[in-house]
Protein backbone atom coordinates (compact mmCIF):
# COMPACT_ATOMS: atom_id res chain seq x y z
CA UNK A 1 0.00 0.00 0.00
CA UNK A 2 1.58 3.32 -1.04
CA UNK A 3 2.13 6.12 1.44
CA UNK A 4 0.12 9.31 1.13
CA UNK A 5 2.02 12.33 -0.16
CA UNK A 6 2.65 15.01 2.47
CA UNK A 7 0.31 17.68 1.11
CA UNK A 8 -2.61 15.27 0.84
CA UNK A 9 -1.96 13.93 4.31
CA UNK A 10 -1.91 17.41 5.82
CA UNK A 11 -5.15 18.27 4.03
CA UNK A 12 -6.96 15.11 5.15
CA UNK A 13 -5.79 15.32 8.74
CA UNK A 14 -6.89 18.95 8.72
CA UNK A 15 -10.35 17.85 7.67
CA UNK A 16 -10.44 15.48 10.64
CA UNK A 17 -9.58 18.32 13.03
CA UNK A 18 -12.22 20.56 11.45
CA UNK A 19 -14.86 17.85 11.83
CA UNK A 20 -14.02 17.46 15.51
CA UNK A 21 -14.09 21.22 16.05
CA UNK A 22 -17.51 21.47 14.41
CA UNK A 23 -18.81 18.68 16.61
CA UNK A 24 -17.54 20.44 19.73
CA UNK A 25 -19.39 23.60 18.71
CA UNK A 26 -22.64 21.66 18.27
CA UNK A 27 -22.22 20.09 21.71
CA UNK A 28 -21.72 23.42 23.50
CA UNK A 29 -25.40 23.87 24.55
CA UNK A 30 -25.48 20.39 26.13
CA UNK A 31 -22.23 21.03 27.98
CA UNK A 32 -23.53 24.35 29.27
CA UNK A 33 -26.68 22.66 30.55
CA UNK A 34 -24.60 20.08 32.41
CA UNK A 35 -22.42 22.75 34.02
CA UNK A 36 -25.53 24.63 35.13
CA UNK A 37 -26.60 21.81 37.45
CA UNK A 38 -27.50 18.33 36.31
CA UNK A 39 -24.30 16.49 35.31
CA UNK A 40 -26.33 14.07 33.16
CA UNK A 41 -28.96 16.23 31.42
CA UNK A 42 -29.59 13.75 28.59
CA UNK A 43 -30.67 11.04 31.04
CA UNK A 44 -34.17 10.48 32.37
CA UNK A 45 -34.42 10.16 36.12
CA UNK A 46 -34.25 6.49 37.05
CA UNK A 47 -32.08 3.83 38.67
CA UNK A 48 -29.19 3.96 36.14
CA UNK A 49 -28.79 7.74 36.33
CA UNK A 50 -29.04 7.73 40.11
CA UNK A 51 -26.55 4.86 40.33
CA UNK A 52 -23.94 6.80 38.33
CA UNK A 53 -24.36 10.00 40.33
CA UNK A 54 -24.33 8.16 43.66
CA UNK A 55 -21.29 6.10 42.70
CA UNK A 56 -19.31 9.22 41.85
CA UNK A 57 -20.44 10.90 45.06
CA UNK A 58 -19.51 8.10 47.46
CA UNK A 59 -16.18 7.34 45.78
CA UNK A 60 -14.96 10.95 45.72
CA UNK A 61 -16.19 12.13 49.14
CA UNK A 62 -13.25 11.80 51.56
CA UNK A 63 -15.68 11.33 54.45
CA UNK A 64 -17.31 8.36 52.75
CA UNK A 65 -16.31 4.83 53.87
CA UNK A 66 -16.30 3.92 50.16
CA UNK A 67 -13.90 6.70 49.15
CA UNK A 68 -11.57 5.78 46.29
CA UNK A 69 -8.21 7.55 46.13
CA UNK A 70 -7.60 9.47 42.90
CA UNK A 71 -4.91 7.12 41.61
CA UNK A 72 -7.37 4.19 41.77
CA UNK A 73 -10.23 5.94 39.97
CA UNK A 74 -10.28 3.95 36.75
CA UNK A 75 -13.32 3.65 34.48
CA UNK A 76 -13.33 1.46 31.38
CA UNK A 77 -15.72 1.72 28.44
CA UNK A 78 -16.33 -0.58 25.54
CA UNK A 79 -16.71 1.49 22.37
CA UNK A 80 -18.95 -0.09 19.71
CA UNK A 81 -22.52 -0.17 20.97
CA UNK A 82 -21.54 1.45 24.27
CA UNK A 83 -20.17 4.83 23.21
CA UNK A 84 -21.39 4.99 19.62
CA UNK A 85 -23.49 3.17 17.03
CA UNK A 86 -22.36 -0.32 16.00
CA UNK A 87 -25.20 -1.30 13.64
CA UNK A 88 -25.67 -2.42 10.95
CA UNK A 89 -21.91 -3.08 10.87
CA UNK A 90 -18.95 -2.21 13.08
CA UNK A 91 -17.39 1.06 11.93
CA UNK A 92 -13.93 -0.41 11.51
CA UNK A 93 -15.28 -3.23 9.34
CA UNK A 94 -16.90 -0.61 7.11
CA UNK A 95 -13.54 1.16 6.92
CA UNK A 96 -11.80 -2.04 5.90
CA UNK A 97 -14.38 -2.85 3.24
CA UNK A 98 -13.99 0.63 1.78
CA UNK A 99 -10.21 0.20 1.72
CA UNK A 100 -10.42 -2.98 -0.39
CA UNK A 101 -10.49 -1.22 -3.81
CA UNK A 102 -7.22 0.55 -2.99
CA UNK A 103 -5.64 -2.70 -1.85
CA UNK A 104 -6.77 -4.52 -5.00
CA UNK A 105 -5.44 -1.69 -7.15
CA UNK A 106 -2.00 -2.42 -5.69
CA UNK A 107 -2.49 -6.20 -5.78
CA UNK A 108 -4.64 -6.96 -8.87
CA UNK A 109 -4.34 -10.70 -8.33
CA UNK A 110 -6.89 -10.34 -5.49
CA UNK A 111 -9.64 -9.02 -7.78
CA UNK A 112 -11.25 -12.40 -8.43
CA UNK A 113 -10.29 -14.01 -5.11
CA UNK A 114 -12.73 -14.35 -2.23
CA UNK A 115 -13.54 -12.57 -0.02
CA UNK A 116 -12.22 -9.55 -1.96
CA UNK A 117 -14.45 -10.36 -4.94
CA UNK A 118 -17.53 -10.19 -2.73
CA UNK A 119 -16.45 -6.91 -1.16
CA UNK A 120 -15.77 -5.35 -4.58
CA UNK A 121 -19.29 -6.34 -5.69
CA UNK A 122 -20.75 -3.85 -3.22
CA UNK A 123 -23.41 -6.35 -2.14
CA UNK A 124 -23.83 -5.45 1.53
CA UNK A 125 -25.98 -8.48 2.30
CA UNK A 126 -23.30 -10.78 0.91
CA UNK A 127 -20.59 -8.92 2.84
CA UNK A 128 -22.59 -9.27 6.05
CA UNK A 129 -22.57 -13.05 5.55
CA UNK A 130 -18.80 -13.32 5.26
CA UNK A 131 -17.27 -15.77 7.69
CA UNK A 132 -14.83 -14.77 10.40
CA UNK A 133 -11.84 -16.24 8.47
CA UNK A 134 -12.92 -14.17 5.44
CA UNK A 135 -13.17 -11.03 7.56
CA UNK A 136 -9.72 -11.73 8.97
CA UNK A 137 -8.32 -11.82 5.44
CA UNK A 138 -9.87 -8.44 4.68
CA UNK A 139 -8.61 -6.96 7.95
CA UNK A 140 -5.09 -8.23 7.39
CA UNK A 141 -4.98 -6.82 3.86
CA UNK A 142 -6.34 -3.39 4.77
CA UNK A 143 -4.84 -2.76 8.22
CA UNK A 144 -1.25 -3.95 7.81
CA UNK A 145 1.79 -3.61 5.60
CA UNK A 146 2.18 0.15 6.02
CA UNK A 147 3.96 2.59 8.36
CA UNK A 148 1.93 3.37 11.46
CA UNK A 149 1.89 7.07 10.50
CA UNK A 150 0.37 6.26 7.12
CA UNK A 151 -2.33 4.16 8.73
CA UNK A 152 -3.16 6.87 11.27
CA UNK A 153 -3.46 9.53 8.55
CA UNK A 154 -5.69 7.33 6.42
CA UNK A 155 -7.92 6.39 9.36
CA UNK A 156 -8.30 10.03 10.43
CA UNK A 157 -9.13 11.07 6.88
CA UNK A 158 -11.76 8.36 6.53
CA UNK A 159 -13.44 9.01 9.87
CA UNK A 160 -13.68 12.71 8.99
CA UNK A 161 -15.62 12.08 5.79
CA UNK A 162 -17.38 8.69 6.06
CA UNK A 163 -21.11 8.78 6.74
CA UNK A 164 -23.47 6.31 8.31
CA UNK A 165 -25.98 4.92 5.77
CA UNK A 166 -29.04 5.46 7.99
CA UNK A 167 -28.53 9.04 9.19
CA UNK A 168 -26.18 10.25 6.44
CA UNK A 169 -24.07 11.85 9.15
CA UNK A 170 -20.38 11.41 10.01
CA UNK A 171 -19.71 8.55 12.41
CA UNK A 172 -18.21 11.04 14.87
CA UNK A 173 -21.71 12.53 15.28
CA UNK A 174 -23.16 9.15 16.25
CA UNK A 175 -21.65 9.15 19.73
CA UNK A 176 -24.27 8.63 22.41
CA UNK A 177 -24.75 11.96 24.15
CA UNK A 178 -25.70 10.38 27.50
CA UNK A 179 -22.45 8.41 27.53
CA UNK A 180 -20.45 11.47 26.57
CA UNK A 181 -21.87 13.09 29.71
CA UNK A 182 -20.85 10.10 31.84
CA UNK A 183 -17.28 10.37 30.52
CA UNK A 184 -17.18 14.05 31.37
CA UNK A 185 -18.75 13.62 34.82
CA UNK A 186 -16.26 10.93 35.76
CA UNK A 187 -13.29 12.97 34.54
CA UNK A 188 -14.58 16.06 36.35
CA UNK A 189 -14.35 13.99 39.53
CA UNK A 190 -10.84 12.69 39.09
CA UNK A 191 -11.48 9.48 37.15
CA UNK A 192 -9.30 8.39 34.26
CA UNK A 193 -11.48 7.09 31.46
CA UNK A 194 -10.25 4.30 29.19
CA UNK A 195 -11.68 2.75 26.06
CA UNK A 196 -11.34 -1.03 26.17
CA UNK A 197 -12.55 -2.29 22.81
CA UNK A 198 -12.56 -5.37 20.66
CA UNK A 199 -11.87 -3.02 17.76
CA UNK A 200 -8.40 -2.29 16.46
CA UNK A 201 -6.31 -0.38 18.95
CA UNK A 202 -4.56 1.75 16.33
CA UNK A 203 -7.84 2.51 14.54
CA UNK A 204 -9.56 3.81 17.68
CA UNK A 205 -6.45 5.68 18.81
CA UNK A 206 -6.56 7.67 15.56
CA UNK A 207 -9.70 9.55 16.65
CA UNK A 208 -10.35 8.85 20.37
CA UNK A 209 -8.85 12.16 21.54
CA UNK A 210 -10.99 14.24 19.17
CA UNK A 211 -14.21 12.25 19.58
CA UNK A 212 -14.16 11.28 23.27
CA UNK A 213 -11.42 13.37 24.86
CA UNK A 214 -9.54 10.13 25.55
CA UNK A 215 -5.82 10.19 24.63
CA UNK A 216 -4.32 7.30 22.64
CA UNK A 217 -2.43 5.92 25.63
CA UNK A 218 -5.83 5.33 27.31
CA UNK A 219 -7.14 3.15 24.49
CA UNK A 220 -6.83 -0.61 24.92
CA UNK A 221 -7.89 -2.60 21.88
CA UNK A 222 -7.16 -5.57 19.71
CA UNK A 223 -3.50 -5.08 18.90
CA UNK A 224 -1.37 -6.29 16.02
CA UNK A 225 2.37 -6.50 15.76
CA UNK A 226 4.71 -3.85 14.42
CA UNK A 227 8.22 -4.14 12.98
CA UNK A 228 11.00 -1.64 13.59
CA UNK A 229 13.02 -0.53 10.58
CA UNK A 230 14.84 2.34 8.85
CA UNK A 231 13.86 4.42 5.86
CA UNK A 232 16.16 5.41 3.01
CA UNK A 233 16.92 8.57 4.93
CA UNK A 234 18.05 6.55 7.93
CA UNK A 235 15.10 7.55 10.11
CA UNK A 236 13.45 4.77 12.12
CA UNK A 237 9.80 3.84 11.59
CA UNK A 238 7.31 1.12 12.55
CA UNK A 239 5.42 -1.03 10.04
CA UNK A 240 2.12 -2.67 10.92
CA UNK A 241 2.28 -6.45 10.59
CA UNK A 242 -0.45 -9.13 10.26
CA UNK A 243 0.41 -10.65 13.62
CA UNK A 244 -2.11 -10.71 16.46
CA UNK A 245 -0.72 -9.68 19.85
CA UNK A 246 -3.95 -9.17 21.83
CA UNK A 247 -7.53 -10.14 21.02
CA UNK A 248 -9.21 -7.56 23.25
CA UNK A 249 -12.61 -9.18 23.48
CA UNK A 250 -14.25 -11.44 26.06
CA UNK A 251 -11.52 -12.60 28.49
CA UNK A 252 -9.04 -10.57 26.45
CA UNK A 253 -10.50 -7.38 27.93
CA UNK A 254 -9.41 -7.93 31.55
CA UNK A 255 -6.16 -9.37 30.23
CA UNK A 256 -5.59 -6.22 28.19
CA UNK A 257 -6.55 -4.02 31.14
CA UNK A 258 -3.91 -5.71 33.28
CA UNK A 259 -1.24 -5.53 30.58
CA UNK A 260 -1.80 -1.93 29.50
CA UNK A 261 -3.47 -0.18 32.45
CA UNK A 262 -2.15 -2.14 35.41
CA UNK A 263 -5.09 -1.32 37.67
CA UNK A 264 -8.45 -3.00 38.18
CA UNK A 265 -11.31 -0.71 37.10
CA UNK A 266 -13.73 0.60 39.68
CA UNK A 267 -16.34 1.23 36.97
CA UNK A 268 -16.95 -0.59 33.69
CA UNK A 269 -19.48 -0.02 30.91
CA UNK A 270 -20.38 -2.39 28.08
CA UNK A 271 -23.28 -3.59 25.97
CA UNK A 272 -22.68 -7.14 24.80
CA UNK A 273 -21.39 -10.61 25.60
CA UNK A 274 -17.90 -9.45 24.63
CA UNK A 275 -17.91 -7.15 27.67
CA UNK A 276 -19.03 -9.72 30.27
CA UNK A 277 -15.58 -10.56 31.63
CA UNK A 278 -14.61 -6.89 31.88
CA UNK A 279 -17.65 -6.17 34.06
CA UNK A 280 -16.97 -9.25 36.17
CA UNK A 281 -13.36 -8.15 36.65
CA UNK A 282 -14.36 -4.64 37.67
CA UNK A 283 -16.94 -5.91 40.17
CA UNK A 284 -14.50 -8.38 41.73
CA UNK A 285 -12.44 -5.63 43.35
CA UNK A 286 -12.88 -4.30 46.86
CA UNK A 287 -14.98 -1.28 47.77
CA UNK A 288 -17.51 0.56 45.64
CA UNK A 289 -17.95 -0.84 42.12
CA UNK A 290 -20.13 0.12 39.17
CA UNK A 291 -20.88 -2.25 36.28
CA UNK A 292 -23.37 -1.16 33.61
CA UNK A 293 -24.70 -2.49 30.30
CA UNK A 294 -26.42 -0.55 27.52
CA UNK A 295 -29.50 -2.32 26.12
CA UNK A 296 -30.42 -1.38 22.56
CA UNK A 297 -34.22 -1.36 22.68
CA UNK A 298 -35.10 1.79 20.74
CA UNK A 299 -35.65 1.12 17.01
CA UNK A 300 -37.14 4.57 16.45
CA UNK A 301 -34.13 6.59 17.62
CA UNK A 302 -31.41 3.98 17.11
CA UNK A 303 -31.74 0.16 16.87
CA UNK A 304 -33.29 -2.71 18.82
CA UNK A 305 -31.43 -5.98 19.22
CA UNK A 306 -30.80 -8.60 21.85
CA UNK A 307 -31.82 -11.40 21.70
CA UNK A 308 -32.55 -10.84 25.41
CA UNK A 309 -36.04 -9.64 26.42
CA UNK A 310 -37.57 -10.75 23.13
CA UNK A 311 -35.50 -8.34 21.04
CA UNK A 312 -34.25 -9.36 17.57
CA UNK A 313 -31.15 -11.54 17.41
CA UNK A 314 -27.96 -10.11 15.93
CA UNK A 315 -24.42 -11.00 14.91
CA UNK A 316 -23.28 -7.53 15.92
CA UNK A 317 -23.20 -6.70 19.63
CA UNK A 318 -25.36 -9.54 20.98
CA UNK A 319 -27.01 -8.99 24.38
CA UNK A 320 -28.08 -12.52 25.28
CA UNK A 321 -30.55 -13.82 27.85
CA UNK A 322 -27.60 -15.34 29.74
CA UNK A 323 -25.92 -11.92 29.95
CA UNK A 324 -29.20 -10.38 31.10
CA UNK A 325 -29.56 -13.04 33.79
CA UNK A 326 -26.02 -12.45 35.00
CA UNK A 327 -26.67 -8.72 35.18
CA UNK A 328 -29.75 -9.31 37.35
CA UNK A 329 -28.01 -11.76 39.65
CA UNK A 330 -24.92 -9.60 40.14
CA UNK A 331 -26.65 -6.25 40.39
CA UNK A 332 -25.30 -4.76 37.19
CA UNK A 333 -27.39 -1.84 36.00
CA UNK A 334 -28.97 -2.34 32.57
CA UNK A 335 -29.45 0.97 30.77
CA UNK A 336 -32.53 0.96 28.58
CA UNK A 337 -31.86 3.27 25.66
CA UNK A 338 -35.60 3.75 25.22
CA UNK A 339 -36.46 4.38 28.87
CA UNK A 340 -33.35 5.95 30.38
CA UNK A 341 -32.14 8.34 27.69
CA UNK A 342 -33.94 11.60 26.93
CA UNK A 343 -32.00 11.77 23.70
CA UNK A 344 -29.54 9.51 22.02
CA UNK A 345 -27.44 11.92 19.94
CA UNK A 346 -26.39 15.53 20.33
CA UNK A 347 -28.15 16.50 17.08
CA UNK A 348 -31.62 15.44 18.31
Characterize the structure shown.
The protein is of the alpha/beta class and 348 residues long. It is 43% helix and 14% strand. It contains 14 helices and seven strands. A seven-stranded mixed β-sheet has the order 4-3-2-1-5-6-7, with helices on both faces. Helix 1 crosses helix 7 (148-161) and helix 3 (91-106) packs across helix 6 (132-143). The protein is globular and about 65 Å long. Residues 1-35 have low confidence and may be disordered.
Salient structural properties:
348 residues; alpha/beta; 7 strands; seven-stranded mixed β-sheet
Annotation field: number of helices:
14
Low-confidence runs of at least 5 consecutive residues:
1-35
Taking all Cα atoms into account, the compactness measure Rg is 20 Å
Question: Which of globular, elongated, flat, extended, rod-shaped describes the shape?
Answer: globular
Q: Which range best describes the helical content: under 10%, 10-25%, 25-40%, 40-55%, 55-70% or over 70%?
A: 40-55%
How many DSSP-defined strands? 7
- Please report which band the strand proportion falls in: under 5%, 5-15%, 15-25%, 25-35%, 35-45% or over 45%: 5-15%
Order of strands across the biggest sheet? 4-3-2-1-5-6-7
Order of helices and strands: HHEHHHHHHEHHEEHEHEHEH
Task: Present the secondary structure layout.
Layout: H1 6-36, H2 47-60, E1 74-77, H3 91-106, H4 116-121, H5 124-128, H6 132-143, H7 148-161, H8 177-188, E2 192-200, H9 201-205, H10 208-212, E3 219-230, E4 236-246, H11 252-260, E5 267-270, H12 276-283, E6 290-295, H13 321-330, E7 333-336, H14 337-340
Parallel strand pairs: 1-2, 1-5, 2-3, 5-6, 6-7
Antiparallel strand pairs: 3-4
Helix pairs in contact: 1-7, 3-6
